[in-house]
Amino acid sequence: MFVLHGFFTQNTLKTLYVLEQLGVDYKFRFVDLTKGENRSEAFRAMTPVGKVPVLEHDGACLFESGAICRYVAGVAQSPLYPADKLDRARVDQWMTFFTCHPGRWLTDLYFEKIMKPAAGLGETNTDRCEESERFATAQLKAVERHLESRNWLVNETLSIAEPWALAYLEQAPQVGFDLAAYPRLQAWYARIEELPAVARVRARVRPFVESVLGG
Ligand SMILES: N[C@@H](CCC(=O)N[C@@H](CS)C(=O)NCC(=O)O)C(=O)O
Predict the structure, then answer these.
(1) Which of 8, 9, 10, 11 to mutate to test the pocket of ligand 1 (most atoms within 8 A of CB)?
(2) pLDDT in tens, 91-135
(3) Which candidate, 155, 154, 157, 147, places its Cα nearest to that of 189?
């Protein structure tokens, strides 16, 4: 049994979407960051960095969402994280790309426009929002180009890179970032959203979102 400690923002959602899609047995323990629960002694005993998500498994703890997803996929020996070295590297490459490029900027927008007001962390920085929108716009064009000739990121089949990317991209409508300029990406996004695993995760985190951000 895996135990995932997390919040409801994209670093946790990446792991929840991936775990759910892998079909492994896991429990979710909500850590309310707005109440500083990640600074408790019990939480710090699991991770030196004090951030979510954290995975507990077989008496060990792991932090970093990427390490967690790859570990669980490895334990499950899932084809969603292919054994072939090149295919695996291609899955890794897209996970890293989303994290460092479009996902990073969409996450900045989410923080500025949603988390800051909700958690009383100060005024939304409009200059920062404009910069984030500019970078996200440019980088999503690369994904659109890649998807012009394919339906999935790697090998014409679903991989853990898809639920991973979803957690970043689903912030777009929430922050008013229009994806209409990317029709192939939108179609791919819709295919990921249709996965039953996605609906299950959303239902699972909804009460926590509502308790922090309101209904
Ligand atoms: N690179 C880490 C980032 C983890 C991270 O930044 N988590 C945030 C929430 S999304 C957090 O725990 N923030 C609380 C804090 O820094 O005090 C990962 O992918 O797991």
Answers:
(1) 11
(2) 999 999 999 999 999 999 999 999 899 888 899 999 999 999 999
(3) 147
Mean pLDDT (whole number) for 134-151: 97
Query: What pLDDT was estimated at residue 125?
Result: 96
Residue at 101: amino acid letter: H
38 lines ligand 1 (CB under 6 A): yes
Q: How many angstroms separate the CA atoms of 7 and 190, rounded? A: 24
Q: How far, in Å, from the CA of 149 to the mean position of ligand 1?
A: 34
**CA-only gyration radius of the chain, Å:** 17
For the whole prediction, is pTM greater than 0.90? yes
CA atoms within 13 A on the CB side of 31: 27
Domains of the chain, earliest start first: 2-80+197-213 (3.40.30.10), 85-195 (1.20.1050.10)
Atom of ligand 1 nearest to the CA of 99: 19
Q: Residue whose CA is closest, atom 2 of ligand 1?
A: 64
- State pLDDT tens for residues 187-205: 999 999 999 999 999 999 9
